[in-house]
Design a protein that fits this description.
689 residues; mainly beta; six-stranded antiparallel beta sheet; 10 helices; globular; PhoX; TAT_signal
Length: 689
């Protein structure tokens, strides 16, 4: 039995339901339009001819004709149904509960409920929704009468990354920090005219982007409730940010409004993030290209190449913001676009502090960034570039961390990401090219694994890439990484170090173009043609060094498909998983994975999997989210799990006048992106029998 939080307020909590037949639950076109500017409907911007796979690349490419045939065969591996755009029915997970602490729960059955469905024995409740008050003076949410002034004080739209920062040892009070990735105007405004948006609608959207900081208190029943606090804060597209690091003040970052190249208003399309060891939040600016207009008006060939590599194209933007502020018009402010695509850092402990954009970590479509402290006290930050055929990066600081939680220590540690060396990853496999046939079949040694090299791009004012100045490396990092032959990956998204075993885990969501005509062929780090389900990479890094080992922990999809792999675990017992996106860890070191775009005809969800021991690879589904929604920003604590439920009801053919969902408020209400908390009914630890 599972527990469903229905969108009907009178439905009750426990509803036994039969296994539901699956329909396609992959991402809708309206989500793609507003979240990433339809990135997957365009050719990937990485058209470089760099080496894909070390010394074996020629052998792989010589087999491209065979791989095309293999790709057609691979489409039938999971069943002929895949040929007509549907996936094979996902199996119901076996009832085995497992013994690893943190994962001892009965897995949720894949489903298409318009509800949050959690494992038996767990309770759930909404923490905060789009439009709920955050800062003092915020009005109550009124969907039909939104205003920019109200939204500046209310919880933003489409919450993604989330973190809980405890204010005391008990965790009774915490700061909830959330990203607000993007706005979907036709679901926010009744009668929205995408060809003629109003200025007020644009300003509401500017205020709905960014981040929220809000105090939450643990209740006696286990739930979380927001509360007024001096810490509460909204960061929007109107909030000043400081540009710092080696590219700050560059001519490439100067505009008519900011001739110094050191101050930017706002942050946008913030996706994943992390909590630093010193208590601040890192957040990644991702699909920023879609917000800018008139890329086609740029005729300078160098500028046009740079814009093209970041996916800038077309005339008018989707949201038409350029009508109300020239900074969104590349014809008027060509450098404004260069001021987005960074890792930003905010200090939730100081609501008066100015957020920072760190140029030393490079500019690309950051999913996020996460830090670990090396043995010598330096910090290492890992980041993925979420685009088909783009790269994985790391940054190693020159300075060392200052211990303690004082404001002085925090200010020092916030400077560490401004001075160091930026690297990009190159992967080499251990298996002969002939054993990587594009189907996902394991090579003879039983693993997809190998070694890797971190290639230095720049450090401070010194560039290591011929033909690039250091400023150009930082501002046009993708082009610099192309030049040094980095390995093209299948959409590297969230990447986080495991605090228990020290290894680094990266979700590679999918890449339907892998192995297609004119695109990179499969390699051992990206082993499937038309990779629709994604995989999870495990890196054993030398931290501050330039060498690493790697393997694929998961090759995702239907366990009945021969082209899937679950860390060597018995596939008859695992939950099906598709399109991994965000990763997190519990205190036992288990990996928790949220998904985005499930291509197995089930709603997206949250999954737990041990990474060490006899149950390594035993994937178990902990929850699913409502129809049209994506599972984001998992936080896993001993007695609490939270997830961001993003874009519920974002289904083609629906809009604010015809909502596809009434989650979470029920009745005839509009769907609202929200943060949900989950806890055990008996108050015990998550995943402990």
């Amino acid at each position: 039995m599972e527990v469903r939080l229905s969108s009907r307020p009178d439905s009750g909590r426990v509803i036994p339901l039969p296994l539901i037949s699956h329909h396609s639950a992959s991402r809708s076109s309206v989500t793609c339009k507003y979240r990433c500017g339809n990135a997957c409907q365009h050719e990937a911007p990485n058209t470089s001819g760099n080496a894909y796979f070390g010394d074996i690349v020629e052998a792989v490419l010589s087999r491209r004709g065979a791989l095309k045939a293999t790709g057609a065969l691979a489409l039938t591996v999971g069943g002929a149904a895949m040929l007509n755009g549907t996936a094979a029915a996902a199996p119901k997970p076996a009832p085995a509960r497992g013994a690893v602490p943190g994962t001892d729960f009965a897995p949720v059955t894949p489903n298409t409920e318009d509800a949050v469905v959690v494992a038996d024995g767990y309770q759930q409740g909404v923490v905060i929704r789009w439009g709920d008050p955050v800062v003092e003076g915020a009005p109550e949410f009124d969907f039909a009468n939104q205003s920019a002034a109200a939204q500046e004080k209310q919880f933003g739209y489409n919450n993604d990354f989330a973190e809980l920062i405890a204010l005391d040892r008990t965790g009774a009070e915490s700061l909830l920090v959330c990203n607000h990735e993007y706005t979907t105007e036709e679901h926010m405004f009744l009668g929205y005219d995408e060809n003629n948006p109003t200025e007020e609608q644009a300003r509401i959207a500017w205020a709905a982007h960014g981040l929220s900081v809000v105090l939450v208190k643990r209740q006696d029943d286990g739930s979380l409730k927001p509360a007024p606090s001096r810490y509460n804060r909204r960061i929007t597209l109107n909030t000043p940010f400081e540009l710092r690091g080696p590219a700050a003040g560059s001519d490439l970052l100067k505009t008519s409004v900011d001739p110094t190249g050191t101050t930017v208003f706002g942050t946008q399309n913030n996706c994943a993030g992390s909590l630093t060891p010193w208590g601040t939040i890192l957040s990644g600016e991702e699909n920023f290209n879609q917000y800018f207009a008139n890329a086609d008006s740029v005729t300078n060939p160098v500028a046009k190449e740079r814009l093209g590599r970041y996916g800038f194209e077309g005339t008018a933007s989707t949201r038409k913001w350029e009508r109300f502020d020239k900074r969104w018009d590349l014809a008027q402010e060509p450098n404004e676009a260069n001021r987005f695509g960074w890792i930003v850092e905010i200090d939730p402990n100081d609501p008066s502090s100015t957020p920072v954009k760190h140029t030393a970590l490079g500019r690309f479509k950051h999913e996020g960034a996460a830090v670990q402290i090396a043995d010598d006290g330096r910090v290492v930050a890992y980041s993925g570039d979420d685009e088909r055929f783009d790269y994985i990066y790391k940054f190693v600081s020159n300075g060392k961390v200052k211990q303690g939680t004082s404001a002085l220590a925090r200010r020092h540690n916030m400077t560490l990401l401004d001075d160091g060396t930026l690297y990009v990853a190159k992967f080499t496999g251990n298996s002969p090219a002939g054993e990587i046939d594009g189907t996902g079949k394991l090579p003879a040694d039983g693993k997809f694994d190998g070694i890797g090299e971190w290639i230095a791009l720049a450090s401070g004012k010194e560039s290591f890439v011929p033909g690039f100045t250091a400023e150009e490396v930082y501002v046009f990092t993708r082009l610099a990484a192309d030049a040094v032959g980095a390995t093209k990956m299948d959409r590297p998204e969230d990447i986080q170090p495991n605090p228990v075993n020290g290894k680094v885990y990266c979700a590679l969501t999918n890449n339907s173009n892998r192995g297609s005509e004119g695109n990179a062929a499969p390699d051992e780090a990206n082993p499937r043609v038309g990779n629709k389900h994604g995989h999870v990479l495990e890196i054993d890094d030398d931290t501050t060094g330039t060498r690493f080992g790697w393997n694929l922990l998961l090759v995702c999809g239907d366990p009945n498909d021969a082209g899937t792999y679950f860390g060597g675990f018995d596939k008859s017992k695992v939950s099906p998983i598709s399109c991994p996106d965000n990763v997190a860890f519990d205190r036992h070191g288990n990996l928790w994975i949220s998904t985005d775009g499930n291509a197995l005809d089930s709603n997206d969800g949250l999954f737990a999997v041990p990474v060490d021991g006899p149950e390594r690879g035993f994937v178990k589904q902990f929850l699913t989210v409502p129809n049209g929604a994506e599972t984001c920003g998992p936080v896993v604590r001993d007695k609490l799990v939270t997830v961001s439920v993003q874009h519920p009801g974002e289904i083609d053919g629906h809009n604010a006048g015809n909502p596809a969902s009434h989650w979470p408020d029920g009745g005839t209400s509009q769907p609202r992106p929200s943060v949900v908390a989950i806890w055990r009914e008996d108050g015990g630890e998550i995943g402990r029998g």
